[in-house]
TrEMBL record:
Superkingdom to which the source organism belongs: Bacteria
Residue ranges of every copy of the Smr domain listed in the record: 105-186
InterPro entries registered for this protein in UniProt: Smr_dom, Smr_dom_sf
Pfam families reported in the protein's UniProt record: Smr
Region feature Disordered, mapped onto this chain: 31-54
Matches recorded under PANTHER family: DNA ENDONUCLEASE SMRA-RELATED (PTHR35562)
Species this chain originates from: Oceanococcus atlanticus
Protein name: Putative Smr protein/MutS2
Length: 188
């Protein structure tokens, strides 16, 4: 019996997937010199246009070559918050894990009140040490009653109540995914 991946594949689909991967392996990217130049949108400078093209190429490269992970799809488990004055681009960088994580707190396995106290204490320490980005591991709630992520919600409440928190979001998969939260702090 083949392992079930959650998408209802049977043995025939596995053969199709193998054939598809074999075909993709033969695909060669176009030489940049053979591509037709795209006209500049009227409201962009040449530099802005080039930056946008580079960003688009990076996103496409990551999408095509990166490993498939079910957490890449929006399942409603994502956390995301930013103070109104914080530019959206900063939150995007945080979501992508582009800030160095300076310290980590693991509240996974604690009771709700213990997690709240630990989170508050950790945030105070982070401010005193002038850490800019920290990670809080709370787990996904898979072993909680009814599978509800109690600690995740408790941590989120603690973060929203703290004025030193500029933004937070679910960590990228490589940093814990939905079982961890990245927090961007105001500089002290």
């Amino acid at each position: 019996m083949m392992p079930h991946d959650g998408f209802g594949q049977d043995d025939d689909d596995g053969d199709e997937l193998s054939a598809w991967r074999a075909e993709l392996a033969r695909v060669k990217p176009l030489d940049a010199r053979q591509r037709a130049p795209l006209p500049l949108p009227p409201d962009l400078t040449q530099g802005q246009h080039e930056r946008r093209q580079r960003e688009h190429a990076e996103i496409m490269q990551e999408a095509m070559l990166g490993p498939f992970d079910a957490e890449d799809f929006n399942t409603g488990d994502e956390q995301e918050f930013r103070r109104g004055s914080l530019p959206r681009a900063i939150l995007r960088k945080l979501r992508r894990g582009q800030f160095a994580i300076q310290s980590t707190l693991d509240v996974h396995g604690l009771r709700r009140d213990e997690a709240h106290r630990a989170t508050q204490s950790f945030l105070i320490t982070a401010q005193q040490r002038q850490w800019r980005c920290v990670k809080i591991i709370h787990g996904k709630g898979l072993h909680s009653p009814r599978g509800v992520p109690v600690l995740k919600h408790r941590v989120e409440i603690s973060l929203r109540q703290n004025d030193d928190v500029l933004a937070y979001c679910s960590a990228p998969t490589w940093a814990g995914g939905h079982g961890a939260t990245l927090v961007l702090l105001r500089r002290g």
